[in-house]
Amino acid sequence: MVMAMLTVQTAAAILCTKTLLLSPLTAMYRFKTGKFIAAEDISNKKRKEEGKVSVGSSIEIDRVRHAQRNAMENVFIGVLLFALNSKAAFVQFYGLNVLTIFTVSRVMHTNSYLLGLQPWRAIFFMIAMVCNFFMIYKTASDGNDFQKWLALLLLKVQIMSPLTGMMRKIFQAPRGEIAEDLKLTGLDKPPAHQNARVERVQNAHMDDLYVVIPFVIVCLFTKQAGVLSTGKIAKIAEMFLYARTGHSVIAILGLPQILSFVAYFAGVWFQIQLLLSWNFHKKFDIHRKSHLLVGLAAKVMICGVIQQLYFLVKGRFGPSVDELEHPEKHTETEITRISNLLRNCCENVVCVLCMICVIRFVNIPHQFIYHFAIARTAWTLVYLLHVPQPSRALCWMAGMVYGIRMAMLAF
């Protein structure tokens, strides 16, 4: 009965809150196992010398992080489709609408992932993905150009998910720490190292979450605020799609990384074109909710550019083969640090922004958005500057509190 009464707002809040809450679960396992993400998280030098705490990961941590990554790769797409074309979410199949099927499937997928339940994990993943494909089809075929091009951008991101899984199967490159994935591949033990080509594709998929998803969010906010006509937004989105498709194809084919670098910055050019329409270079008004939200999305995009520049400073155009094959050897490098920063921004900022696209910022108090923006901007600066704990943890907690408070408005 409750599920039958789901609205797009409550569904988005449930799905995004579920994704958000996997972050504190990860933190809990970090304290339990003594494996932290950054050097400043380890305050007890004696325990570090004894080997009881270190920078790294564990099987428990990896399982939660993979479950959250999968949620981000699929939930964000579904939630943005709710915002883009809510009608498609209410199409009925055997007495249930797509909205309900998708929401239940994604909640059950996370539970199955955390508990290591196959084939249920795969079944719920497939059901939810089919829902996304259906909503994309309905939006692209029945909608206007604005809806069509944004739907196609989301389709491009969605396709990367099963494609990465197929490559893991073809190249016998499962996530060794996930027992059921290892069994599915038919291997007796984990590979000695990760497959560089497969990990490059996985990185390209994650890069879509840091680049494409924020771009779609800004497009929706730009339309909601009436800053630019839908026709002009659609044209920018079309050109951006070509650049991002090129970026993914280059990674899939294993072409030289300089081509990925060029495709990435071709996409940045169209991001800039969209952001310039807001005239932030003339005036950024912290009293306007739309400015704060677009500013947060822009911050994620800028962090992505910083990551690319880090590579350039190192004299290359992407991660090295050794970084792809043996990430455990590079846990304390600046390259890994900026990657972790982007991942955290996606887990928190992008997640909340997706939800707000559905709830709509006009329905959210300014103080919630303002305090969330302050907390997340402070978190980024603290992380980039290696400021000692507990400053980063406090910023993260403040952002989490306001993210959940905004989610509660949907009920």
Commentary on this structure:
This protein is mainly alpha-helical and 411 residues long. The protein has a single domain (3-408), classed as Cytochrome C Oxidase, Chain A (Up-down Bundle). 73% of the residues lie in helices and 2% in strands. The strands form two sheets. The protein has a two-stranded parallel ribbon. The chain has a two-stranded antiparallel ribbon with strand order 3-4. A hairpin with a 2-residue loop joins strand 3 (92-93) and strand 4 (96-97). Helix 3 (59-84) packs antiparallel against helix 5 (98-115) and helix 12 packs parallel to helix 15. The protein starts with 7 loop residues before the first helix and ends with a helix. 42% of the residues are buried. The model has no long low-confidence stretch (mean pLDDT 93).
Task: Round the Cα radius of gyration to an integer and report it.
Answer: 20 Å
Number of strands: 4
Shape: globular
Q: What distance separates the N and C termini?
A: 15 Å
- Overall mean pLDDT stands at 93
CATH class division: Mainly Alpha
SS class: mainly alpha
CATH topology: Cytochrome C Oxidase, Chain A
The total count of helices amounts to 16
Low-confidence stretches: none
Specify the helix fraction band. over 70%
CATH architecture: Up-down Bundle
How do the SSEs run, as a string of H and E? HEHEHHEEHHHHHHHHHHHH
Largest sheet: 2 strands, parallel
Strand order of the largest sheet: 1-2
**The CATH fourth-level homologous superfamily:** Cytochrome c oxidase-like, subunit I domain
- Count of discrete domains: 1
